[in-house]
Each structure stands twice: as C-alpha cells, then as structure tokens.
Design brief:
Pfam families: LRR_At5g56370. It comes from Medicago truncatula. This is Cyclin-like F-box. Keywords: Cyclin. This protein has 3 domains: 88 residues, no CATH class; 174 residues, Leucine-rich repeat, LRR (right-handed beta-alpha superhelix) (Alpha-Beta Horseshoe), CATH 3.80.10; 86 residues, no CATH class. It is built from 13 helices and 19 strands. Strands 1-2-3-4-5-6-8-10-12-14-15-16-17-18-19 form a 15-stranded parallel β-sheet. It has a 4-stranded parallel β-sheet with strand order 7-9-11-13. The chain is elongated, with a radius of gyration of 28 Å. Helix 5 runs parallel beside helix 6.
Length: 427
Amino acid sequence: MRTIEPTEIESLPDVILQYILSHVSNGRDVAYCNCVSKRWKNSMACIRSLYFTRNAFDNAPHRENSDIIVKRMVSAVERLEELVVYCPFSVYGLASWLSLAGPSLSHLELRMDNLGDNEIIHESPSKLDCIGAAVNVETLKLWGVLIKLIPKWETFHNLRILEVVGARVEDAAVNAMIQACPNLTRLLLLGCEGVRSISITLPFLEQCKLDFYGLGNCSLSLTSPKIESLEVQGCSWIRVPETKHLKNLSISNSAGRVYMIDFGNLASLEFLSMRGIQWCWDAICKMLKLASDVKHLYMKVEFTGDYDALQPFPEIDFVDFFNSHPKLRKFDIHGAMFAALCQKNSLKHVDSEFVIPCLEEVFITVRSPLNAEQKMSTLESLVKYGKNLRTMVIKILQMKGSHNSADDFFDEICRFRYMHRGIIRIE
C-alpha cells in the first residue's frame, strides 16, 4: 500500500479533509492533529466522538489536568455526539464538559472512580447529578459509581441503553435512577453491592442483566412485557409476571439460596440456566414445570433444602422428565441433577414407545462413583432413547472412593465410550 505524503493530504479539499479527521476519536490523537496546522485544527471541529484512555494525561503539561484539557477539546467541537472518559476527573470537570456538550451527546461512557469516596456522598452536585445535563443521551455506561442518594435527574426520554458496572448502591437511589429512564430497551447492573430490594417497571425493556454482590438474599420484581433475555445473579425472591416473549433466562445465586420464583407464561423460552449452591425444591420444580418447551437446559444446582440444612435432590423420574420437556435439544447436567435422574426406580418400567425426540447434545458432569450401576444405566438410556443424539460429553471430576470404586467406574465409562465412540467424548 502506497504511503500518502503530507503534501498530498494538504492538497485535499476542505470537505474531504474534514471527513477524514472526523473519524479521529482518541483524545491524544486529536491533540496531535491540532498541532499539525491551523487548517487541521479548524477541521477538528467536525469530529463527532472523543475518547480518553485511562493514561491519556500521564504526561500532561504542568498545571494542566484532565478537567482542563478535556474541556478545551470538547469546547472546540461543534457537535459532539459521543464522549468516553476513562481517565480521572473531578465533579467540576464533568459539569463543565456536559454544560458544553450535554445536549448533543447520544453516547456517554464514564469511569466514575468514586466507589470508596465516602466523603462525597453529600457533595452537591455529585458526579451522578451532573449526568442529568446529557438530556438527549441514548446510551449511558458508568463504571465504578456510587449510587447512595437519588440522582437529581429529569426524565431521560431518549435513553435506550443503561449499563452500570461496579457500584455501591442504596435501594431507593437505584430504583429512582431506573425510573428516570422509562424507555430503556437494555439494562445492565453488574457487580452492584448493597441491593436488598429492587423493583423495575420498564414497558420497552428487552434485555436485562442483573448481578448483585452480597449475601445473595435480594428480592427482584420486574414488570416488562417485552422482555426477551433476563440474567439474574444474587436474588432469593424473583417475580417476573409478564414473560410471553422471554427466550433466554438465567438464574444463579452463588452466595445465598433461591427461595421463590414467580414467572408468567414461558411458552417462548428456549434457554434456561439454573445455577447455585442451594435452591428450594419447590422453586426447582416450579421452574422446570414452567419451562416445559425449553430447548437448552443448563442445570448446576448443588443442593436443595428449604433452610440451612443442605439436602440432596430427591429422585427425578427419567421418563417423566423427558416427556415433560419434549423439545429439549441440549442438556447440561451437573452433579446433583444427574444423580437425581439415576435412581433405581427411574428406569424400571419404560414404555416400548418411549423416545427422547429432539435431544441432540448432552453434557454431563460426574462427581462421584456412588450408584455407579444406576449412573451407567442412565447413560445407556440416553443413548438408547435419544434417537437424534449426536454428542455426549462426560466430564469426570476428581473422585475419591475406596476399594478402587472410582477406578472401576471410570473403566466402565471408558468401555461405554468405546461402544459409542462416534457420539461420546470424555473430558
């Protein structure tokens, strides 16, 4: 590719030069372009996006900080549409930038870095308050933000995407923040600490991902008739009454228990993931019953039990389970769920016409050699009745067993793989 000489660039018409330079967004590159010539500096007013990296001003001139430099660049742009700032800034700097560019911004992304700054809780205005100046923003992404007080925002009518990653919150503040964004189609609250109860009513929301730190005892109420994808981590009580469009659902709780789930019609559900240390058995049964038409089921729940005592899964009838989920194509079974399907009585009376019609892929995690005979019988039944089974992956975790039971079980699985080597793989 031929290198373009500086004289050739200078010979370009103004409109073409402005078009080329309008695609420069990195703050440091913009600063360099401003130094080339007066013509280039004037053309930089046409840029639409400014991006400042974490270390953008490590070598800034004496007495100039990020607040001053970013303001100077923002003020030189005629109509800024996107502003991304990862470098440190103050509340006064942010207020000055948004007083200039706020009305024209459609995308705003800020690394707030005020999680551990308890002294600024009652600061007025706060960094969060300042964002209210971006009245027409369509996408708002915040990193490391303190949401302790209700932000002084007017309604963001144009906001469609709100993402908050890493936050310390109070329930009233985060609920009020969401209420100020009534037309969201995508909401992400990831790594949020301090949430106890959250209520979301968003009529246009389609995608929602919630990840709450803490004891895993949060409660969630979500009313969004258009919701299509929902991921929830850290909630014990979950209520989502309007779910007729829900296709992807993931519920996990790595710190607490899932006590209660209340969902509407899940006729459109294609993917369901259930994860966690402990779920109440009623919640598991209700979820599996509601998800009767699911096509991909991922299940990694270690124990059941309603209180502190951890209980193993009760027996799950193999035939009834697959008859109740006739559209299941992909099944990820981990530990407790697999053991529950491997009980003695599960395969005693199988109708001659029984078949698993749609199952194509099975991923099984085996953690114990206990009940090895029943487990082998269940593996054989999956192959026998799964007429369309193409792949079975068996992952064997490190087992502890006496009298070589673990070794004997592993040998049985290896023989089973050899008999069905076109389908089965061991990891």
